[in-house]
Each structure stands twice: as C-alpha cells, then as structure tokens.
Amino acid sequence: MIKLDIITIFPDIFKSYFNESILKRAQKKRLIKIKIHNLRDYTTDKHKSVDDKPYGGGPGMIFKLEPIHRAVSSLKKLKVKSPRPRQGEAEGGQKLKVILFSPKGKKFDQKMAKRFAKLDRLIMICGRYEGVDERVAKYIADEEISVGDYVLTGGEIPAMIVVDTVSRFIPGVLGKHESLEEIKGSYPVYTRPEKFLKWSVPKVLLSGNHKKIEEWRGRN
C-alpha cells in the first residue's frame, strides 16, 4: 500500500473525486491510502493565517514557511512500515518523497509516476495565491512538480492528477495489468451498435481474425 498525503487549504475539493470509481475501490481494498491535511490546522495564530505579504513588494499574498514546515514535519513522524525491507532500506523504514506543485517545477510524466509508485509514501504540498515561500522548495520539498505548460489557481488539481496517475501503477488498482495503456498500447476502440447513422465500425474488428486485428491496431 502507498500512502498519499495532500496538504491544502481547501480539503473539501477532493471529496468527490477520491470517493468515486477506481480510486474509491482502491482505498476500500487498502491498495492506496489517501489522506487530506488542512494546512490551517498547523498554524499557531487565532486567525489561522497561512499567507503574508511578499518581501520586496509585489501583488498578492505568499504562503508562509512555518505552517508548511510544521505540517510536513508532523507527517514525517507518522511512520509507514514497509511490508518488507527493500535493498538499501532498513527494517521498518519508509521510502518517502515530499513534492511541491509549482509552475516552474519539472514536468510530470508517466516515467515520474512510475517512480513515485515505488515509494511507501508521497507528501504533496498544494500552493495557492501568488506562490509559496521559496524556502519550502529549497529546504522542505524533495522535488518541484508542474503538470503542464500552463498556470492553475492552485495545486489541488495537480494533486488529483498525481494521485490518479500513480495509483494506476499499484498492482490491483486497475484489476488487470493489461489495462495499463503502456502495456496494451493506444488505438481506436469501438462497441455496439455496429452501425449508427452513416458511421460504421471498421470491418476488420468484426472479422474474428485476431492477427489482422492486432495488425490494424498497430497501424492506428
């Protein structure tokens, strides 16, 4: 089982997505464990402030360093015991990474998702507003991640993308290993009815000739 921790100021955003379909079943089967943490729970002032004005001036507000440090430090103390020690890993240890979502981060891809899926735990920090104090990237996060060449209002959608993509690599989540796009490949698919209006299913798929079908899929 991999544990996926998400630090955010909008914990309710995740309720619907993580409680439906494949991810819901994966959690129920204890193949993955998703935990949402409200960053405001790690503040110390009565207003539960998570942001402040940037030094040097500028528009907007910046996520403060202290509550993020408290959140990550607290989560790291909650050890997740590995089923068995891996090579180079002590008994009872955990393989863990802390990632920060950022427009200037390394672009997230399938290779990265597969690497994350080998961890015991992934802690994700969702930024908001005008950014996050740079000391979080320098001293707390192991990696900065971007999900594409565009800017979002926060790290919550990227966190959903990472959880979804990483979970697919956990054995049993998809049911069949062959369901992975990387295994079966990507090609056009059709189902009933055979003909709708003037749009028909390619005849080769109705032939029953599996060799020709595979050749067709390879070309498309």
Structural notes for this entry:
It is elongated and about 70 Å long. The protein contains 8 helices and 9 strands. The protein folds into 2 domains: 2-177, Alpha/beta knot; 187-219, Trp Operon Repressor, Chain A. By secondary structure, the chain is an alpha/beta fold. The two termini are 36 Å apart. Strand 5, helix 4 (110-116) and strand 6 form a beta-alpha-beta unit.
Key attributes of the depicted protein:
two-stranded antiparallel sheet, 20% strand, alpha/beta, Alpha/beta knot, 30% helix, elongated, single chain, five-stranded parallel sheet, 220 residues, Trp Operon Repressor, Chain A, 2 domains
- The helix/strand class is alpha/beta
CATH architecture identity of the largest domain: 3-Layer(aba) Sandwich
- Lateral arrangement of strands in the main beta sheet: 2-1-6-5-7
Task: Look at the structure and give the mean pLDDT.
Answer: 90
Total number of strands: 9
Biggest β-sheet, characterized?
5 strands, parallel
Tell me the name of the CATH class of the largest domain.
Alpha Beta
CA(first)-CA(last) distance? 36 Å
Estimated share of beta-strand residues: 15-25%
CATH superfamily of the largest domain: SPOUT methyltransferase, trefoil knot domain
pLDDT < 50 stretches: 82-91
Domain tally: 2
Outline: elongated
Order of helices and strands: EHHEEEHEHEHEHHEEH
Give the fraction of residues assigned to helices: 25-40%
Give the count of helical stretches: 8
